[in-house]
TrEMBL record:
Lineage: Eukaryota, Metazoa, Ecdysozoa, Nematoda, Chromadorea
Keywords in alphabetical order: Disulfide bond, Glycoprotein, Glycosyltransferase, Golgi apparatus, Lectin, Manganese, Membrane, Metal-binding, Signal-anchor, Transferase, Transmembrane, Transmembrane helix
One Gene Ontology molecular-function label: carbohydrate binding
Biological process annotations from GO: protein O-linked glycosylation
Enzyme category, top tier: transferase
Assigned EC number: 2.4.1.-
Name listed for the protein in its UniProt record: Polypeptide N-acetylgalactosaminyltransferase
């Protein structure tokens, strides 16, 4: 191809994606990297949406019930946590809109992709959501790549899931297989059993209330073919739990975590966007231009093939089946559900693999507010997330587990079973440290007691070696530790014998801006009283920063409340911690004040006056 032809093709694409895709049918090969095989991609016409079939829920529409059905559905929602009556009215083969981007719709992948075993775990799932998951996988997966669907029944008790299900799947001619657990294993161990039972080269896990979208499987298989150690996740679209409307997805995001070891989603960081544009770091780019050399290909980036993600949600993922077991599958010592998604995420990254989100793969998922089955773990354990996440913290987080125990202090002395096998796995795989993970995989993560000026106030310490005595020697210029264990910290006001501390008052910071309060200082080290004065002079928590509220207080005309808002590194809200103890909001010139404020009230900002009600101290000060 000459330079003139190259630029003609490029301009054609830039002018109109649709026109370009309509007129290009050629094959071209593209080397993923110097040591990886070329991949073959074919461009084809973007399919027109077919006219929706008549019927409830077609083209992903919602079902709205009336009268007695609506009342009955509302009553059953209390058990199923989804509208089963609406689901039962919808065809198992219903049409849904293709939620992929136009460029994703225009790509077909290699013809020699690995074959997949799709593993679906269920326990007492409603009939129609379970079977709609199966039907959608069959209907929207190329048969040459779908090796089998494996249903793992985790000891269901509902009659319709017994002989009826066994008979129903016979219609698929052996494509759908069913394995029943002889006792309740929980989702985590059932997934391990499902992967053992499967025989495909790739194992794909789906929840039992999903709908696979068009072209969902090929991008996952393509990426695993290119990188064996990548564990990949589809983009998860939302399906309404009340109407079953296929809502699609919003902006692309990545998975991260709270220090309490719960999963959270964040926008794609700028560093990842920059990495995606750097061909030396990431050569796996798609180009629509055929027959041009690799150097020119790298200049024409039009599709994001994958995003690196620090963690994953956990329900929907795909992996090379052999690699899945090589890297430790799941921790079988974990119970039921919860925490396993972060454990596999930390482990895969630290042990040489990667967690990736594939924008061209979409799967719909019903997000329920609860579970229609028993979540009690072994021995009657009601806090399976707590015990599971402690296993993860002890094996993978090194000294940073201290930040987990700030949130889960009650688990410090809890026995969570034998960890020796998982510790040996980490040694055998020669895995990196958790600090490496923080520095390289999620450098944006705020560490409350590192690279800060101050953190909390000396109050209470849990000694692992049962020593009793002073934990911290407080000094305004230098921090000295004599503590062997985990210390918990607060920001204490010096008035009223120092018994008021800044406190979130259990208001949910992840649901929007919340008003900051004060509460009696908790010697148990409540996580709601953990604050840092950061290196850039922000009064902050894990993801929120203190700022002045614009609201007018009719009964306090000379005071303002304080909001905890999402921290913005580009627009930091500064506080000055003065030598006399005042915490001064720089922009307004006002100081934090508790004059007339009682435990459980909101803290105020008032004109600085050097009174004791405006004097604050942290647990630790760092030079």
């Amino acid at each position: 191809m000459t330079d003139v032809e190259y630029f003609e093709h490029r301009n054609l694409f830039l002018q109109s994606n649709t026109k370009c895709f309509t007129n290009l049918y050629k094959y071209y090969s593209f080397a993923a990297s110097n040591n990886e095989p070329e991949r073959l991609i074919m461009l084809h016409k973007i399919p027109d949406y077919s006219k929706p079939r008549k019927g409830p829920g077609e083209m992903g529409s919602g079902v709205y019930l009336e009268g007695k059905e609506a009342v009955l559905a509302q009553d059953q929602m209390k058990f199923w946590f989804m509208n089963v009556i609406a689901s039962d009215k919808i065809s198992l083969d219903r049409s849904i809109p293709d939620s992929r981007s136009r460029s994703c719709q225009a790509v077909k992948y290699n013809k020699d992709l690995p074959k997949a075993s799709v593993v679906i775990i269920f326990t007492d799932e409603a009939w129609s959501p379970l079977l709609r998951t199966v039907h959608s996988v069959i209907n929207r997966s190329p048969p040459e790549f779908l090796h089998e669907i494996v249903l793992i029944d985790d000891f269901s008790q509902r009659e319709e899931l017994k002989e009826n299900l066994t008979d129903y799947i016979k219609r698929f001619g052996g494509l759908v297989k069913l394995k029943r657990m002889e006792e309740r294993q929980g989702l985590i161990r059932a997934k391990i059993e499902g992967a053992k039972f499967a025989t495909g080269e790739v194992v794909v896990f789906l929840d039992s209330h999903c709908e696979a979208n068009s072209g969902w499987l090929e991008p996952l298989l393509q990426r695993i073919k290119e990188k064996r150690t990548a564990i990949v996740c589809p983009t998860i679209d939302s399906i309404s739990d009340s109407t079953l409307q296929y809502l699609g997805g919003g902006a692309y995001s990545i998975g991260t975590f709270w220090w309490s070891l719960h999963y959270k989603m964040d926008p794609i960081p700028e560093r990842e966007k920059r990495r995606r544009k750097n061909p030396e770091v990431d050569p796996l780019m798609l180009s629509v231009l055929p027959n041009i050399n690799l150097a020119l290909c790298r200049r024409t980036v039009i599709t994001l093939v994958y995003f690196w993600s620090p963690t994953m949600a956990g329900g929907l993922l795909a992996a090379n089946r052999e690699y899945f077991f090589e890297v430790g599958s799941y921790d079988s010592g974990m119970d039921i559900w919860g925490g396993e998604n972060l454990e596999i995420s930390f482990r895969v990254w630290m042990c040489g693999g990667s967690i990736e989100i594939i924008p061209c793969s979409h799967v719909g998922h019903i997000f329920r507010s609860g579970h229609p089955y028993n979540m009690t773990g072994r021995g009657g354990n009601l806090d399976v997330h707590g015990t599971n996440s402690k296993r993860l913290a002890e094996v993978w987080m090194d000294d940073y587990k201290r930040l987990y125990y700030v949130h889960r202090m009650g688990l410090v002395n809890t026995d969570v079973g034998d960890l020796s096998e998982r510790i040996e796995l980490r040694k055998r795989l020669d895995c990196k440290s958790f600090k490496w993970y923080l520095d390289n995989i999620i450098p944006e993560k705020f560490i409350p007691d590192e690279n800060v000026k101050a953190y909390g106030l000396a109050s209470y310490c849990v000694f692992l070696n049962k020593q009793i005595g002073s934990c911290f020697l407080r000094n305004r210029e230098k921090y000295v530790s004599e503590c062997y264990g985990f210390c918990f910290s607060r920001v204490r006001n010096r008035a009223n014998n120092g018994d008021l501390c800044l406190d979130t008052l259990q208001r949910l910071e992840n649901k929007g801006d919340v008003v900051l309060g004060v509460f009696a200082c908790q010697n148990s080290g409540s996580a709601s009283q953990m604050f840092s004065w950061s290196s850039d002079s922000q009064l902050r928590r894990e993801t929120t920063c203190a700022d002045i509220s614009p609201a007018v207080l009719p009964d306090k005309p000379n005071a303002s409340e304080v909001l905890l808002v999402q921290c913005n590194p580009r627009m930091p809200v500064l506080f000055e911690h003065q030598k006399d103890g005042a915490l001064k909001h720089i922009k307004s010139g006002l100081c934090l004040d508790v004059d007339g404020v009682r435990s459980g009230d909101n803290v105020l900002l008032r004109t600085c006056n050097k009174k004791i009600s405006q004097k604050w101290s942290f647990e630790r000060y760092f030079s």
